[in-house]
């Protein structure tokens, strides 16, 4: 669960933040799709290496555990990230952003339910906590994108 849970959650939050930030600053389909591919590959590799090093630094890690967590993190983050391309291919940019936000919420809810069940926590508290983080990412990256548009838009560099 460690690599899969981390990769899935990180993939959703990172990709959604990038989508909302790019959308609020430019709203160009090509920029958003390019961003999704770029962040999916680069961040999946980065997080997989981070998890790999984290596991290796533990006392007496098994090679199999290190390998499994590294692969699970990479694959889950890559696939979750790349799945965000689908709405941008099928729908208008504004609809694709809305679908991405809803898709992210669904993934976070499903991950939260899995965690709550495994740890015997209150599922509503776990879901609320995780959705609040997702909501914060949307709000912060939206306004960050607007700031970038204002600060750097329509200027010769």
Please, could you describe this protein's structure?
The structure is a single chain. 87% of the residues lie in helices and 0% in strands. It has 157 residues and is mostly helical. The chain has one domain (2-151). The chain is globular. Keywords: Membrane, Transmembrane, Transmembrane helix. The chain crosses the membrane at residues 69-90, 96-115, 127-148. This is VIT family protein.
What does the secondary structure layout of this molecule look like, with pairings?
Blueprint: H1 2-25, H2 29-56, H3 63-83, H4 85-90, H5 93-119, H6 123-152
Transmembrane segments: 69-90, 96-115, 127-148
Protein name: VIT family protein
Keywords: Membrane, Transmembrane, Transmembrane helix
Summary, kept brief:
The protein is mostly helical and 157 residues long. It is built from 6 helices and no strands. The protein starts with a helix and ends in a 5-residue tail after the last helix.
For the structure shown, list the relevant keywords.
6 helices; 0% strand; VIT family protein; transmembrane; transmembrane helix; membrane
Major sheet attributes: none
Number of alpha- plus pi-helical segments? 6
Mean pLDDT: 90
Terminal Cα span: 46 Å
Protein name: VIT family protein
Organism: candidate division WWE3 bacterium GW2011_GWC2_41_23
Keywords: Membrane, Transmembrane, Transmembrane helix
Transmembrane segments: 69-90, 96-115, 127-148
């Amino acid at each position: 669960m460690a690599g899969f849970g981390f990769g899935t959650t990180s993939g959703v939050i990172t990709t959604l933040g990038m989508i909302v930030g790019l959308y609020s600053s430019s709203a160009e389909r090509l920029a958003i799709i390019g961003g999704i591919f770029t962040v999916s590959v680069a961040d999946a590799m980065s997080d997989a290496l981070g998890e790999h090093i984290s596991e290796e630094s533990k006392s007496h890690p098994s090679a199999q555990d290190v390998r499994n967590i590294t692969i699970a993190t990479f694959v889950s983050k890559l696939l979750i990230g790349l799945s965000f391309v689908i709405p941008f291919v099928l729908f208008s940019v504004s609809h694709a952003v809305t679908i991405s936000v809803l898709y992210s919420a669904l993934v976070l809810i499903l991950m939260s339910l899995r965690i709550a069940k495994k740890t015997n926590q209150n599922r509503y508290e776990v879901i609320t906590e995780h959705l609040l983080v997702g909501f914060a990412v949307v709000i912060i990256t939206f306004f960050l994108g607007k700031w970038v548009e204002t600060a750097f838009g329509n200027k010769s560099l």
